[in-house]
Specification:
By secondary structure, the chain is mainly beta. It is built from no helices and 10 strands.
Length: about 100
């Protein structure tokens, strides 16, 4: 699912295979040796999808900020991870319990 973070920057490096990067701007194919970065607070959700018949692996580096909240960007997904009032829990997008 496409998501974005309030307090966590993310850096993703593709180690093997191919991954499709989905953002609000569209789709881009990433292969081994390519990378992508996502700045905290930027409301452009990202997702990696392996549409090939081969395994893919990638490394994700982030700062793992305890104040972070993750929002899921697609309209058909009504989720939020670790909102300020419910740290460490998944809620609906409006913050109400699941």
């Amino acid at each position: 699912m496409r998501h974005w973070h309030t307090h966590e920057d993310e850096f993703v490096y593709v180690l093997q295979g191919e991954l499709l990067l989905r953002t609000s701007g569209g789709e881009q194919l990433l292969s081994a040796g390519m990378c992508a970065g996502f700045v905290a607070g930027t409301e452009d959700g990202h997702q990696f999808v392996n549409r090939s018949d081969r395994p893919a692996s990638y490394l994700v580096i982030s700062n793992r900020d305890p104040q972070d909240t993750a929002y899921y960007a697609d309209a058909d997904v009504d989720l939020m991870w670790s909102p300020p009032h419910a740290r460490g829990k998944m809620t609906r997008g409006d913050g109400t319990p699941l």
